[in-house]
Amino acid sequence: MKSKYKRILLKLSGESLMGHQGYGIDPERLGSYADQIAELRNAGVEVGIVIGGGNIFRGLSGTAKGFDRVKGDQMGMLATVINSLALSSALENAGCPARVLTSIGMFPIGEPYSPARAIESLEAGRVTIIAGGTGNPFFTTDTASALRAVEIKAEVMFKGTRVDGIYTADPEKDPTATKFDKITYDEIYNRGLRIMDLTATTLCRENGMKIVVFDMDTPGNLKKVASGDNIGTLVY
After folding, report:
1. Which pTM does this prediction carry?
2. In contact, 80 and 106? CB cutoff 8 Å
3. What tens digit of pLDDT does each residue of 103-156 get?
4. For the chain, which end, N or C, has fewer CB atoms within 10 Å of the first or last residue's CB respectively?
5. CA torsion 12→28→58→48, rounded to 10°?
6. Strands 46-51 and 98-102
């Protein structure tokens, strides 16, 4: 494959890792993700990854059930570490070198994150998974992915979801919703579309970080997006 990009940040949803089982990590979905990512890395693309933890625990939903918000968010951060370890293991099983960096000190589970360490790892040809969110409560993994994309000097942020792009409304609820091929940050604000939380969207906008929202659950789509195929939605 011929990639349009040299270095990307891939944001993966924790919920997507559940597959059809409704909780936890589906080995089949995990293996599919690993194969797609390994293919990209083998084509010479430097791949950084941030993955959510919603398949295991979500801080906000925990707060609604009586958890302290700070402790709930910290539990969510730990969930992202579990997913990151699972993905790194799947990548290594696919013959793809991977490294887990954590925003919270967790050695030897993962090495401490710094932008310099992440860039060094990417340049060495390892898929570099950055776990633990931002390391702070009250920030989502969307914000963490936007921050890491800027810090590692990625050319673009790919947001892999179960939907094939951004729509005028939720296509799972509104059959009349129409898809955007591309959309500006300002239009996202004006239409009140929540593709990511506002902090993440603002961070990308202020730093000129393009986002491509696409369906990661269809095998082969990651390669298509990296090659510049017009699938998904470009945010610019």
Report:
1. 0.94
2. no
3. 999 999 999 999 999 999 999 999 999 999 999 999 999 999 999 999 999 999
4. N
5. -20
6. unpaired
